[in-house]
Amino acid sequence: MPVLLKGDSKMAVIPMSYSPGTVARRFSILDGVTIQGVLYQVIWDSKTPFAAVIEAAPSVIDGDMRHKVVATLELQRRPQLEGVLVRKFWEDSDVAQIEGIVVDGIVRDVGLATFVYETVASKAGVVLLSDNEQYEGGKALWQHIARRSSELKVFILDTDAAQYYPFDGERVCYDGVSIPESEIWSEHPDRSKHGVVLVAESITGKAA
C-alpha cells in the first residue's frame, strides 16, 4: 500500500440519513458508542459490504424521522489482489479491501474511524485490507491502529511477492514503528510499493 499520495483525500460526507425501516431491513447493529453525550451505532450491511455510523435516536430530517449518518466505510470483496488469489491467504475468512472511510466533522478526531475498523473486524469477523493508494490521513490512521488498538493486529502483505513481511514464511505484527516505512509506502510517482497492503485482523480471530 501503498503508493502515498500528497495532501489529503477530498472525499466528503454527503449528507445522508436512513429511515428506521431501512436500518431494520438492510443492516445489523454491531455496536454502539457514546460521543459527547450522543449515542451512535455502527451498522453493517454484509451483502454490499458497507458499514455506517448513525445517530441511534432518529430525528426529524426533511419532515421525516430518520437516523443521521456521521461516518461511512466502503469496502470491496475481491477474488484476487494484484494477481494473488485471496483464498491463498484467507481460505475460510471474510476478506474485504477498504475503498474509503469518511467521518463527519462533528465526530472527527475522537477515534471513531479506529472504532469502526475494530467493530467490523471483531463483531462482523471481516479481515480488513488497506487500499493500494493512500493519502497521509490513511497512513496516519493505519499507524494509529497498529500502535494503539487493543482489538486489532496488523500485518504487512506484499502481494507482488505473495508473502508477509519479513518474507521468510512467517509474519510479524506491525506496531506502527517495528517495520521500516520504506518496506510499506512509496511516495507518488514511485509505485514500487503499490502491491503492499496492510492487513487488520481481530485479536480473537473470529466474530464476537
Concise account of the structure shown:
With 208 residues, the protein is an alpha+beta fold.
**Share in helix:** 10-25%
How much strand content do the residues show? 35-45%
What overall geometry do the principal axes of the alpha carbons give? elongated
Distance between the termini: 28 Å
Q: Biggest sheet, in brief?
A: 11 strands, mixed
Q: Supply the number of helical segments.
A: 3
Total discrete domains: 1
The number of strands is: 16
One letter per element, helices H and strands E, the order comes to EEHEEEEEEEEHEEHEEEE
**Rg over CA atoms:** 17 Å
Provide tags for this entry.
11-stranded mixed β-sheet; 3-stranded parallel β-sheet; 39% strand; 16 strands; elongated; alpha+beta; 3 helices; 208 residues
Structural account:
- The structure is a single chain.
- The chain has one domain (3-202).
- With 208 residues, the protein is α+β, with helices and mostly antiparallel strands.
- The strands form 3 sheets. Strands 2, 3, 4, 5, 6, 7, 10, 11, 13, 14 and 16 form an 11-stranded mixed β-sheet that branches. Strands 12-1-15 form a 3-stranded parallel β-sheet. The chain has a two-stranded antiparallel ribbon with strand order 8-9.
- The protein has 3 helices and 16 strands.
- The longest helix has 13 residues, at 136-148.
Can you lay out the helices and strands and say which pair or pack?
Elements: E1 3-5, E2 17-18, H1 20-26, E3 28-35, E4 38-45, E5 50-55, E6 59-61, E7 64-76, E8 80-81, E9 84-85, E10 94-103, H2 112-123, E11 126-129, E12 133-135, H3 136-148, E13 152-158, E14 163-164, E15 186-187, E16 196-202
Parallel strand pairs: 1-12, 1-15, 10-11
Antiparallel strand pairs: 2-7, 3-4, 4-5, 5-7, 6-7, 7-10, 8-9, 11-16, 13-14, 13-16
